[in-house]
């Protein structure tokens, strides 16, 4: 097992602010689980970094991976200690520092102290969507993400990319920006949901689920327009729609539909905060997961649904074909007619399309975290003898 440091700054902040894990958080948690018995946790504040002791790190990794474990008091004590001891030199030469979330890469001086002391950054690249599609993101995110990618490619000893589609995008971007990529590997992700027994069916009507933050890229507005049409035409026989995810940015039109569209009252259920066990229950009993995004770097909800043997209707994106092959039914994210046809068919108790996907699912083998980390560890072994790429 290689000597590893893991930046837990984002995970710690999100736990302290009572936020449920996103896809990026689930990846970070898996890294804490995989390396946690031998790794040490790091808190990064701009160029400054604080290294937790082995005992503190083990406790932090365990708490971050298990939301039922109390963390607040320990976290505040840990942060206070970090602020006092950050200046003490650490023996980290040759150790790999994982940034699993893009957090902190807005500054080229990220983890400057640890890098000066010989730590080797390894950065996971989740997507380049703010660069590819700034129209779907917060104002200013294009500039911030450009800085993140330039920082990652300049300071990292190695990059881990979550899909071949993301890697192709990264290579095209780096070629256009005249950036040399450090050593890199593509390692597909796996599901991060725990193995728990689903609860009882949450509603009598057939229903569909969409799992994501409400933001323009996720295309909730198209689904709500479609559901309004179905509610008017089908009355009480309309299938229900369950939206699992908090409200994000620039989603006023979706919020208007949710709050003021009368035909959607009692038909669309919005759940802004959902535990893993509740998520598993909603997915398990659903007719299908709906994934109508305009762009994705990976798409963990797709993996999560298929791991529970739940059908998926997804946008016709290259990355979805890469990770799920021909199992889902695909539709262009703007093709409302096809989405309507698929949803009305899947809502039927004798749906032939749903039965066909359930059949395709039987032969499908998803990537496991063990396979993911075999690729990562193989890359680390090749980098073990290399010096730091940059101490600037």
Number of helices: 16
Give the SSE order as H and E letters: EHHEEHHEHEHHEHEEHEHEHEHEHEHHH
What fraction of the residues are assigned to beta strands by DSSP? Answer: 5-15%
Strand order of the largest sheet: 3-2-1-4-5-6-7
Mean pLDDT: 92
Q: How many domains make up the 3D coordinates?
A: 2
CATH C-level label of the largest domain: Alpha Beta
> Which structural class best describes the helix and strand composition?
alpha/beta
**Globular, elongated, flat, extended or rod-shaped: what is the shape?**
globular
User: Do you know the CATH architecture of the largest domain?
Assistant: 3-Layer(aba) Sandwich
* Spans of at least 5 consecutive residues with low confidence: none
Helix content range of the residues, please?
Answer: 40-55%
**First-last Cα distance:** 28 Å
* Main sheet attributes: strand count, strand direction, barrel closure: 7 strands, mixed
CATH fold descriptor of the largest domain: Rossmann fold
How many DSSP E strands? Answer: 13
Q: What is the gyration radius calculated from CA atoms?
A: 22 Å
């Amino acid at each position: 097992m290689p000597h590893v440091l893991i930046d837990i700054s984002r995970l710690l902040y999100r736990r302290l602010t009572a936020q449920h894990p996103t896809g990026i958080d689930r990846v970070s948690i898996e890294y804490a689980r995989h390396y946690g018995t031998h790794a040490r946790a790091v808190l990064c504040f701009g160029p400054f970094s604080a290294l937790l002791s082995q005992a503190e790190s083990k406790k932090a990794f365990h708490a971050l991976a298990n939301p039922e474990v109390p963390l607040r008091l320990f976290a505040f004590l840990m942060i206070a200690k970090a602020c006092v001891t950050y200046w003490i030199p650490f023996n980290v030469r040759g150790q790999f520092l994982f940034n699993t979330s893009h957090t902190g890469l807005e500054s080229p001086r990220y983890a400057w102290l640890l890098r000066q002391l010989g730590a080797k950054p390894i950065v996971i690249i989740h997507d380049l969507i703010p660069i590819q599609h700034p129209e779907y993101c917060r104002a200013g995110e294009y500039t911030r993400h450009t800085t993140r990618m330039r920082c990652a490619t300049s300071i990292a000893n190695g990059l881990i990319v979550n899909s071949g589609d993301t890697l192709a995008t990264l290579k095209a971007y780096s070629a256009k920006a005249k950036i040399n990529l450090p050593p890199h590997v593509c390692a597909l992700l796996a599901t991060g949901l725990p193995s728990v027994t689903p609860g009882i069916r949450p509603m009598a009507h057939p229903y569909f689920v969409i799992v994501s933050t409400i933001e323009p890229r996720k295309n909730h507005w198209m689904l709500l327009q479609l559901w309004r049409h179905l509610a008017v035409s089908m009355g009480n026989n309309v299938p229900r729609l369950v939206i699992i995810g908090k409200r994000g940015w620039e989603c006023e039109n979706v919020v208007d539909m949710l709050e003021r569209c009368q035909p959607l009252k009692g038909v669309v259920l919005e759940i802004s905060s959902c535990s893993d066990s509740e998520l598993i229950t909603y997915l398990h009993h659903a007719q299908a997961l709906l994934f109508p995004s305009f762009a994705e770097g990976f798409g963990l909800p797709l993996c999560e649904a298929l791991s529970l043997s739940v059908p998926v209707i997804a946008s016709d994106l290259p990355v979805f074909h890469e990770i799920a092959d021909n199992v889902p039914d695909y539709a262009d994210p703007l093709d409302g007619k096809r989405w309507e046809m698929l949803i009305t068919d899947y809502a039927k108790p004798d749906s032939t399309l749903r039965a066909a996907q359930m059949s395709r699912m039987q032969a499908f083998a998803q990537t496991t975290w063990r396979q993911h980390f075999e690729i990562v560890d193989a890359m680390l072994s090749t980098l073990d003898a290399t010096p730091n790429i940059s101490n600037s």
